[in-house]
Write a structure and sequence with these properties.
Blueprint (H helix, E strand, L loop, with lengths): L3 H5 L9 H14 L8 E2 L1 H8 L3 H13 L3 E4 L3 E4 L5 H25 L2 H14 L10 H18 L3 H8 L3 H7 L8 H15 L3 H19 L5
């Protein structure tokens, strides 16, 4: 009979939920444009291709709708969200420049050690460290969104955080360049932000985030040229 101390060292791995697996697959197809922006999405076809029932597909599509990647139209059904246009792109960055430097300045005084550790981990993963390979911008977009959300959460203003989240910034931006790898420039900018937050330097944190947003605008605006 096994001893109690032996049982404590035997961890049972939780299986990945089927709904999560379906979500991850459809998310990757949308971000890589295997499912083209604006195209109709058939629940029957997805279920057949993934070898699952309709239930996890519907669950995944509902999650993706909440993220702005899927649009549901009455009497028509689901379709991939259209690509953002230049006007929407400029408006997103206007909002980011208004909110994110301010949020980062506040976060410098309020961020806790756990949140700093999470930021460091996310930054390392975006650099391809820690045993996780960032294979595409869809992976990078997910990590980048988490990175910015942690900072918004650390500022202590829930309304501000919700406003930034509602833009679905990282999903829409990284859909513009589905076949390009994560840039070292963005990673270097993230490091500057983390250094300022660790130093509790509010002005440096605000400046680092403002520079990051402006440089990001310059990088992504080339899509519209």
């Amino acid at each position: 009979m096994a001893r109690a101390e032996d049982l404590k060292t035997t961890a049972i791995k939780r299986p990945t939920r089927l709904g999560d697996e379906v979500y991850n697959s459809v998310y990757a197809w949308l971000m890589s444009q295997k499912i083209q922006p604006g195209s109709r999405i058939s629940i029957d076809n997805l279920a057949r291709e993934l070898g699952v029932s309709h239930t996890p597909v519907r669950e995944a599509l509902s999650r993706l709708e909440a993220q702005g990647l899927i649009v549901k139209t009455h009497l028509i059904g689901f379709s991939a969200a259209p690509q953002i246009d230049r006007t929407r792109f400029d408006q997103i960055y206007e909002m980011r420049l208004l909110l994110e430097p301010f949020a980062t300045r506040k976060a410098a005084a309020l961020i806790d050690p756990g949140q700093l550790i999470t930021l460091q981990r996310l930054a390392a993963e975006m650099r391809g460290e820690g045993g996780r390979e960032v294979a595409s911008y869809s992976d990078f977009a997910h990590l980048d969104g988490e990175f910015h959300d942690i900072i918004a959460a650390a500022c202590g203003n829930g309304v501000l955080r919700q406003s930034l989240a509602s833009l679905h910034t990282h999903i829409h931006l990284f859909r513009l360049f589905p076949h390009t790898g994560a840039t070292t420039k963005a990673n270097a900018e993230h490091a500057e932000i983390i250094n300022a937050l660790e130093a509790r330097d509010a002005r440096a944190a605000e400046r680092a985030m403002r520079n990051h947003v402006k440089r990001s605008y310059a990088r992504f605006s080339t899509y519209f040229h």
